[in-house]
Amino acid sequence: MLKDMEVMAVLPAKDIDRAKEFYRDKLGFEPERTMADGGLVYRCGKGTSFLIYQTDNAGSAKNTQIGWASDDVQRDVDELRARGVVFEDYDMPGLKTENGIASMEGYGQAAWFLDSEGNILNISSMPS
């Protein structure tokens, strides 16, 4: 049953107005809908979407919370940097970024950044 349903990622925000500004100004999103409780729904490609809702728990996860599939990670990193997005650098076993981008055998490229609320987001490509 669930495998045929559309998926919606859910992200926490301590300050929903600050998050709205970040997603608009840095990532180029406008909310598709505002929920009764102030949550914001954003539409992405192929019918996918994500919800941002206000909670004090924002920024506490230490893992990637949402990711976008890219056909050109370098191009997208460059464009997001031009908008003021700062990419994370990692140097650990199995994961090392160079200029914010990791190249992983069998997985393509990936880059991670934090939103205004401390959520870890990423863009990545998968080899065909």
CATH architecture: Roll
> Runs with pLDDT <50, length 5+?
none
Question: Helical amount among residues, as a percent range?
Answer: 10-25%
Structural class: alpha+beta
Number of structural units classed as domains: 1
Pfam families: Glyoxalase
Domain VOC: 5-126
GO molecular function, one term: lyase activity
Keywords: Lyase
Q: Can you walk me through this structure?
A:
The protein has 128 residues and is an alpha+beta fold. It has one domain (2-56, 64-124): 2,3-Dihydroxybiphenyl 1,2-Dioxygenase, domain 1 (Roll), CATH 3.10.180. The protein is 16% helix and 36% strand. The protein contains two helices and ten strands; from the N terminus they run E-H-E-E-E-E-H-E-E-E-E-E. The protein has helices at 16-25, 73-82; strands at 8-13, 33-34, 40-43, 49-54, 64-69, 91-92, 95-98, 101-104, 108-114, 120-124. The strands form two sheets. Strands 5-10-9-8-7-6 form a six-stranded mixed sheet. Strands 1-4-3-2 form a four-stranded mixed sheet. Strand 8 (101-104) and strand 9 (108-114) form a beta hairpin. It starts with 7 loop residues before the first strand and ends with a strand. The model has no long low-confidence stretch (mean pLDDT 94).
